[in-house]
What we know:
Layout: H1 3-8, E1 23-25, H2 35-43, E2 48-51, H3 55-64, H4 71-77, H5 82-92, H6 116-134, E3 141-146, H7 153-162, E4 167-171, H8 178-186, E5 191-194, E6 207-210, H9 213-216, E7 227-232, H10 235-244, E8 252-255, H11 288-293, E9 298-301, H12 307-315, E10 320-323, H13 325-328, H14 337-348, E11 354-357, E12 367-370, H15 379-384, E13 396-399, E14 405-408, H16 414-419, H17 433-440, H18 465-469, H19 479-487, H20 491-504
Parallel strand pairs: 1-10, 2-3, 3-4, 4-7, 7-8, 8-9, 9-10
Antiparallel strand pairs: 5-6, 11-12, 13-14
Amino acid sequence: MTFADSLESRSHEAGASSRHPRIVQGGMGTGVSSWFLANVVARHGQLGVVSGTVIDGIVARRLQDGDPGGHMRRALASFPFPDVAARVVRRYYVPDGIGEGVPYRRIPTWSLHADPALVELTVCANYAEVWLAREGHSGLVGINYLEKIQTPHLASLYGAMLAGVDYVIMGAGIPVQIPGVLNQLAQGLPASMRVHVEQSEPSDDFRVTFDPCAITGGRRLDIRRPFFVPIISSATLGEMLISKSSGVVDGFVVEGPTAGGHNAPPRGKMVLNDKGEPVYGPRDRMDFDRMRSLGLPFWVAGSYGSPEKLKEALELGAVGVQVGTAFALCSESGLDEGLRQRLIELALEDRFEVLTDPLASASGFPFKVAQIEGTLSDREVYESRERVCDMGYLRRPYKKPDGSIGYRCFAEPLASYLAKGGMIEDTVGRKCLCNALLANIGLGQVRKDGSRELPLVTLGDDASFVKRILTGGRTSYSAVEVIAYLLGQSVDEVRAVGEASIRQG
Length: 505
């Protein structure tokens, strides 16, 4: 039986297990929650999560770096439609790598009508990341996306589903369309999704579409639908998603404003503190009585990365917790080793600081920024960077006066943004997350002057776990130690789970 045939024989029922994991390893940012980290976490009995955001660009750059370890090519060799994967490898793989100081080849930019080569890359990249995370064990793997980055979703989801992803987790928006999309893709049917276009009329219906047959060579495959778990900041949003989504919502991640990455804005009028951060008040607190009344499993996130907070979450009725920062700083994460070590040092010295920047992200959501000298969190460093928008994931579609669609980003060059009808006040303080987040994982673009894009690290507020895990003068720790710490178990107990999972896998 071929791999494609085996896909057709899979159960169409949602999810791989009736028992949800207690710990969800967060999708901590582009490439930080990498396949390697997710594999370790899943292997040891918890939900390992990879980040699907910008994964097409990441895989293209890994291939251009010569594919260290051969992992991308190994995963793509298992892709059930070899001609598609072969084209991706042929386009981007550079034996021995492009070399120091050589710019990465740009990939096409996403739009409502994407280049077919970009669609193929995106399907394959999501497949590869999930396949590698699932390799060699029987654990559960999820993938995390930002709802705001809409145009790649259909191709991304299909690639992850082809690889057997167990959970799809989505934040930074209201993803009412995604459950229905998962249903369509699971049946091998064409899917479409309405895309928000600025300056459009209520009667306009702008969409992205995707037909799995473009990848499968015309075969309609029946594959397993993953659990869909949106990230919410209020029970009201949870109620709305249950009632208005195009299909079944299977659970929620309930995220407070101290969680890393993008945060929901405060409810009501935006008020800033003396550091320029949004002020969250009583209206932003989660109503756990209402959450329990929804009758769906949920995980709590945002400073819940300790055994005491896990116990508290369980008492509140949660299945468990989502933990990001503790995993982001472990040795298996995709974060650049120098950055990771610097952040651990800051935590050990009680100088770890994270600010909630209301302007940094072009998504329009507040964004948590770790304060690290020499990165774009440094005002002088940020102001010295030439504004460049050459990746475009956070571009916003807008309707032009002639009815056609244009694209603009708050962080693009000022002249370009203003020429597209944008207002200069929208550009103040905006940072190019696309380029910065790839720099966080050692894949920063090289510019014409030979300089390389600089990082901008996102983490949650709480780093108290560092001193509790790193005893005896140690300066690094593993993902297994994080799991043991949270569960109140020994490292040997957690490792025994991993050994059993490997045998079953």
